[in-house]
Specification:
Layout (H helix, E strand, L loop, with lengths): L1 E10 L4 H14 L6 H14 L3 E3 L2 E2 L2 E3 L7 E12 L7 E10 L7 H13 L2 H8 L4 H16 L1
Parallel strand pairs: 1-5, 3-6, 4-6
Antiparallel strand pairs: 2-3, 5-6
Helix pairs in contact: 1-2, 3-5
Length: 151
Amino acid sequence: MIRKDLVFVHQELNCSADVITFVAEAADCAGLLNNPEEFTKAVFRRETEISTSIGYEIAIPHGKTDAVKEAFIAYIGLSKPFEWDSQTKDLVSMVFLIGVPEKNTDRLHLKAISEVSKKLINEDFREKLITCQSNEEAFILLDSINQGIEK
């Protein structure tokens, strides 16, 4: 689910809307979306329910919609942390945006959130991830999450 072409480090984005739009454009270019605008709306809709900021400077926004052709996880490492939302005022420096089709019968998005969360609880893993110097280096580290999801 984590794809090399959706892993980005040192991104200069300044708000959650910028991150969500950036990922929607990248996922659309990768052929993973039917409709990037509908995907973006689904993610924003989910954000209004409850913050997806989980602490440790991490947010895991997600959208479950028919605008998604193929499930994915994008990773964005930010150049500098920013306040993810006005609800929690949490600063975020790492974002994992998950997109899954609406008709996702195997609850893939829940498994993906679980696997990402398991890895991110480990302080050493978070430190290694935030200090990655290239997209490739980050993908190699994140690929272990893919292995957990595939089990």
